[in-house]
Amino acid sequence: MGASFLKKDQLDKAFYAFKEGLRADPENAELWFQVGVVLSKQERHRDAIKMYRNALKFDPENSNAQLQLGIALHEVGMYKEAIIVFNRLIENQPYICQAWMYRGSCLTAKEQYKDALGDLEEAIDCGLSQVEIWVLKGYCFEQLGDYQESIDAYQTATDIAPDDPMPFFGLAGSLIHIGENEQGVDSLKAAIRKDPEFADAWNLLGDLHADMGELESATDAYQHVLKLQPWNIEVRFTHALLKAELSNDADGVTDILNQIIHEGQETPGYYNSHGLALLHMKKYESAIQAFEHAVRLEPENTSYWHNHGAALYKLKRYNDAAKSFQKALHLSPGNVNSWIGLGMVGYKLYDYTRAINAFIQATKRNPKKANVWILLGDAQYERGSCREAVNSYDKALELEPENTVAWNQRGVVLRSLGSHTDALTSFEHAARQSDDKPDTWVNHAVTSFEIGEYGSTISSFEKACKIGPIPIDSWRIYLNALAYQNDHQKLIRVAERYLERFGDDDEVSFLVGVSYYKLTQYEGAVRKFSETLAKDQSNVEAHYWYGLTLLAIGRYAEAIHEFEQVEDNQPDDYQAWFSHAKALIALGQHQKAEFILKHSIQISDTEYDSRYLLGSIQSSQNQNADALLSLTRALELNPGNNPALILKAEIEMKTGSYQQACQSYEQISGPDADRYTILHGHASALYQTGQFKEAYTKVQRLLTRNEKDVDLWMLKADIERSLRLFEEASLSLLEASRFSPADLKLSGIIGVVLFEAGHYKDAVRYLEKALSHDPENGELWKKKAETLEMLRNFWQAADAYQEAVRILPEEPGLIKKQGLTLYAAGRCELAIPVFESYLNSTPDDTDIWEKKGKALFKQGDFDQSSVAFAHAVDLKGSDPGLLIRYARSLSRSGRYEEALHPLDTILTLQPDNPEAWKMKADAEIACGRKDEAAHAVGEALKQFPEDPALLFSHARSLYDNCMYDEARDAILKVLDIVPESSEPRALLAELLWLTADHEAAVETYNQILEEDDENARAWFLKGDALQNLGRFEEAAQAHERAFALGGDSSVGLMLSRKMRYLQLSKSSK
Question: 932 and 957 in contact (C-beta within 8 Å)?
C-alpha cells in the first residue's frame, strides 16, 4: 500500500502506510528504508537519517539504505559522517555511481579538492553525466587554481544543461580569474537570462563592472541586487558611494562614510571618519587636525595613530609620520598597515634597510597582501639586493598574477641582473594588464635595445609615444635603434622632429650623418660630419664615419687621415684599422694594407671582414697557403659566406686541392650557387676528384646557357674521356675547334682522343697536323708512335719514337718503346742496340732483357742471346717460358750441359712440360747420356702418350741405342698421329733400310723424294736398297743422283750401323 502511494507521490499517505507496517513488524528493514525515502522526498533529511540507520540495523548490507543514508548526511552538511558511509559502500560495491558523485561532493565541501576530482572522474567513468558533477569539477579546479580545466568543466556543464544558470555563474568566476573579464560579463549575463532573480550573479556582475571602470553599469547591477535583497547593507553602501563618485559629490562621499562609521556622533570615531573623508579629498592639513582630535580623545587606538601617520606622510613630513606609525605599532605590533607605512617612510628617507625590515614584518603578518611584497621588492632593489627583489615581486605575482606594477618592477630588476629575456617577458605581462602609462613600454624598449633587438625597441617606443610623452634620453635610444635597424629615412624624419622639440643636439646630428651615409647620400653625410667635427674635433666616432664617407666617394688619402685620427685616440679600434686597410688597397698599397689588416686582426680576431679582406690581398699576391688560412678563419667566423667560399674554392683549384674545392663549392648557397662561373668551377673540381657523372651533369647544364664556351667543351671532353666515352669526347673537341678554329693545340688533343676512341687513322691525321705546327712536341710524337703501333705500322712507329726520344731524352720509356717497335717490325739488328741503350739506364727491366734475347736468337747470335736470357732469369726468377728460351739458346750455342739446369728447374715447376722433356732428352743425348735421354722421353710419354714430338724423341732415343725394331714401332705410331710429318718419315725410311726391309724402304724413300728431290742422303740409301733387291739399273741412277747432289758424309756411318745390325741379327739366329 505504502509503495503504491509513494509511486503516486502521495507522500503523507505513504508515510502513514509504512508506519502502520512497522507497528506490525518493527524489525522490517525495508519498511524502515521506505519511511526514510518518504522523509527524504519531504526534505526532512535529519528524520530520514534515523530511518536509514534503523534499516541498516536490521539489514547491515542493504546498499540502497547505505546510499540514501550517505545522501541524507550530505544534505544536512554532515560531510565527515557521509564520507564514512560512502567509503564503506564503495569498498564493497564500487559500481554504485552515485556513491562516487556524493562522496566527491562531500570532499569538495571539506576542501579536499584533489580527492574530490578523483571521485567525480570515477562517477563520470561509471556513466553519470549530471550537470552537478561538471559544476563540482569546475569548482574544484577553480579552487586549485587550474582555471583552464575549470573553464572546460563549466563549459561541459553548460552543454549538458544550457538552461541551468549555475554553470554559467561558475564559468564567469573562472574567466575572471584568468583576466577574461569581458567573457566573464557575457557568462554572468547568460546566467541572469536563465534566472533574472539570481542575486549573486547580479552582485558579481556589479563588482566586475566596477573593476573594469564601468561605474554606471556597476551601479545598475547593484540596483538589481537591492531589489532582490533590500537588506544587503554592504551593497547598499557600495551603491551609494558609486553614485556619489559618479556625481563628483565629495561631500556626499564624506557623509556616507560618516554614516557608516560614526553614525553622526561627535566621538573619536567621528573625528577619525571625518579625517578619512578629508584624507580622501586630499585635504591633508585638515585631516591631520581631525586625527589629532581622535588620538587625544582615544590615545590607545591603533587605527587613529596609523591614520595620523598616513596624513603626515601625504604632506611629506616623513619623520613625524614615522613616529605615528611607531606609536601605532607600540600599541599593536601586528598592525600590518602601520608596518607598511613605516616601510614607506624609510623608503622616502633612502633608509632602505629600515624600509626592508618594516616590509618584512608586514609580510610576516599578512603574506597575502601583494602590494606589500611589491614595496619590499622596490626597497630591496634600491639597496642592490636584486635577487631578493625578484623573489619579492614573484611573491606578489603569486598572489596577483596580473599585477602590472609587480611585473614592471620585476622587469626593471631583471634587466639590471642581465636577465634581459626574462625582463622583456615581465614588461610584456605588465603591458598586457595596463596600457595607460608609457613607462612599461619605455622599459621594454630600453631592455630590447640593450640586447640588440632593435626592431622590438622601435616598436615599444612607438607604443609608448602613443600613450604619453617619453624622456629625452629615451628619444636618443629610439634614434639609435632606428640607426641599428637601418631605418634611416625614418631616423632622419624623427631626428628633425626631435631637433624642433629639444633644439640642437650633437649626438642626434651625428646619427643623421650616419643615416645619410647608409642611404648613400654622401654629400649630406659629409655636411653633417663636417658640422659635428667643427664643433668637436675630439669626436672619434665622427672621424670614423667621416672616413667611411670619404672612402665611399673615392677621397682615399683624406679617408686615411680620418682613420689615423681614430687610431691615435683609440688604438684598439679594429674597425678603423680595417677601413684604413681598405683605403690603402684602393691606392694599390697592398703590402702596407696587409700589415694594417694584420694589426686589426691582432686587436680583434673575431671579425669576418678583416679575415676575408686579408685573404683577398694574400691571394692577389699568390700567397695561397696564407690566403687559405685567412679564408678558413673567416668562414669559422661567418659560416656559409658566399664571397669567402668562392675565393677559397678558386684558390683551392689553383693549388690543386680539388677535394677541398668541391666542399667549398657545395657550401655556396643562394643565387651565387647558380652563377655560370661557380658551376663551371664546381664542375672542374668534380672532374678532378673523379666525380665524373656529377661533373658531366653540370657541364651539360652550362652548355645550354653558352654553347660557344670552348673551355666548357674541352672540360666535357675530359669528363667523357674519364668515363671512356671516347667517341663523345672526340665530338666535344670537334665542337670546341669549331668555335676556336685558330687554336692549333686542339688538333693534337683531338688526335689523342681519336686514338682513345680507336680511330687510329684519323688520329694519325690530326696528330700530323698538330706536329706540322709544333714539330718539337715530344708528347705528340709519342702519341703518334703509339697510334702507328696500334695500326701495326711498326717501322713508322719506331721513327716516331725516335723523334720523341730526341725531344724527351729524359724519358727512357720512349727508348724502350722504340726498341719494341723495331723488334715488332722484324728489324732485330736495329732493335738490339736500342735495347742496349735502354738497358744502360734501366738495367732491371726483365722484359727488355728477354726481348733482347729473342732478337739475338733470331739473329743467330745464340751466345749473346743466352747472356740476355740469363739476365732476365736473374731478375724474373722461375718463369717457365723464359727458362725454355734460355735453355734453347744454350742448346743452340752447343752448351747442352748448361741447358740442363734451366730445364730441370722447369720440370720441377711443371713436371708435365713436354717441350722441356724433349729438350732435356736432346741435351742428354748431346751430352752422350742416352739412358738419361731415354728416361726423359719416357717420363714425358707417361704424361702425354700421344704427343708426337715425344714419341718421335722416343723413337730417336731407341734408334740411337740401336733398338731399331722398337724404334720402327714407335715411329710408325708417330706417323699414325701426324702422317704428313717429314722428319719421322725420314727416320722410318732409315730404320727400314737398316733392318733390310728393302721394299718398304724404297717405297718410303720415294715418298720422301716426292717432297724433297734434292735430298742426297735419301737418293743414296734408296739406291742401296734397290741394289739389295737386285734392281741394279735403278740403284745406279739413284747413286748417280746422290753424287750429283754432292753426296752425304754421314752415309758411311749409316753403312757401319747397318753392318753391325745385320751381324747381330745373324748371330742371334
Answer: no
Residue 310 lies in a domain: yes
pLDDT band, very low/low/confident/very high, at 251 (cuts 50, 70, 90):
low
> What is the predicted pLDDT for the residue at 190?
94
Integer CA distances (angstroms), 710 to 593, 706, 734, 735, in order: 38, 10, 10, 8
Residue 561, domain member (yes or no): yes
Mention every residue, 6+ apart, whose C-beta is less than 8 A from residue 1039.
1019, 1020, 1023
The answer to whether position 987 is within a domain reads no
Whether residue 127 is found in the same domain as residue 244: yes
Give per-residue pLDDT as tens, 5-29: 777 677 777 777 778 777 878 888 8
DSSP one-letter string for 554-597: T-HHHHHHHHHHHHHH-TT-HHHHHHHHHHHHHTT-HHHHHHHH
630-650 per-residue burial string, b: 16 or more CB within 10 A, e: under 16: bbebbbebeeebbbbbbbbbb
Find all residues with CB under 8 Å of 10, minimum gap 6, and list them: none
For 477-489, the pLDDT digits (tens) are: 888 888 888 888 9
Q: Let me know whether 87 and 213 are in one domain.
A: yes
Identify whether residues 67 and 118 lie together within a single domain. yes
Residues 221 and 342 in one domain: no
159 domain residue, yes or no: yes
Distance of CA 16 to the CA centre of its chain: 86
SS3 content of the chain, % helix, strand, coil (to 5): 80, 0, 20
717-735 burial: b if 16+ Cβ within 10 Å, else e: bbbbbbeebbebbbbbbbb
Residue % of the chain over a pLDDT of 90: 20
The verdict on 228 and 286 lying in the same domain is: no
pLDDT band at 253 (very low <50, low <70, confident <90, very high): low
CATH number of the domain that residue 578 is part of = 1.25.40.10
Burial of residue 435 (CB within 10 Å: 0-12, 13-18, 19+) is: middle
Please tell me whether residues 578 and 599 are part of one structural domain. yes
Q: 156-182 pLDDT, tens per residue?
A: 989 999 999 999 999 998 877 655 778
- Residues 6 or more apart in contact with residue 484 via CB below 8 angstroms: 452, 454
Number of domains in the chain: 3
Average pLDDT value for residue range 275-302? 78
**3-state SS class at 755:** helix
Task: Count the alpha carbons within 13 Å of 992 in the hemisphere toward its beta carbon.
Answer: 24
323: containing domain:
250-366
pLDDT digits (tens, 9 = 90+) for 239-250: 665 565 456 665
**Which residue, 159, 208, 217, is CA-closest to 180?**
208
Q: Are residues 38 and 164 in the same domain?
A: yes
- Indicate the residue among 332, 366, 400 that finishes a domain: 366
Same domain, 239 and 275: no
Give the dihedral of Cα atoms 520, 522, 524, 529; nearest 10 deg. 120
Q: Which of the listed residues 366, 384, 413 is the one where a domain comes to its end?
A: 366
Half-sphere exposure for 112 (CA within 13 Å, toward CB): 14
- 175-191 per-position pLDDT tens digit: 776 557 788 899 999 99
Q: How far apart are the first and last CA of the chain?
A: 162
The three cell numbers of residue 964 are 731399331
Q: What is the secondary structure of 254-268 as a DSSP string?
A: HHHHHHHHTTT--SH
Q: Is 1034 helix (H, G, I), strand (E, B) or coil?
A: helix
Q: Are 49 and 24 in contact (CB under 8 A)?
A: no
Q: What does DSSP assign to residue 671?
A: G
pLDDT at position 535: 87
Containing 686, the helix (H) or strand (E) segment is: helix 676-688
DSSP 3-state of 21 = helix
What lies within 8 Å, CB to CB, of 208 at 6+ separation is 172, 176, 181, 184, 185, 188, 218
SS3 692: helix
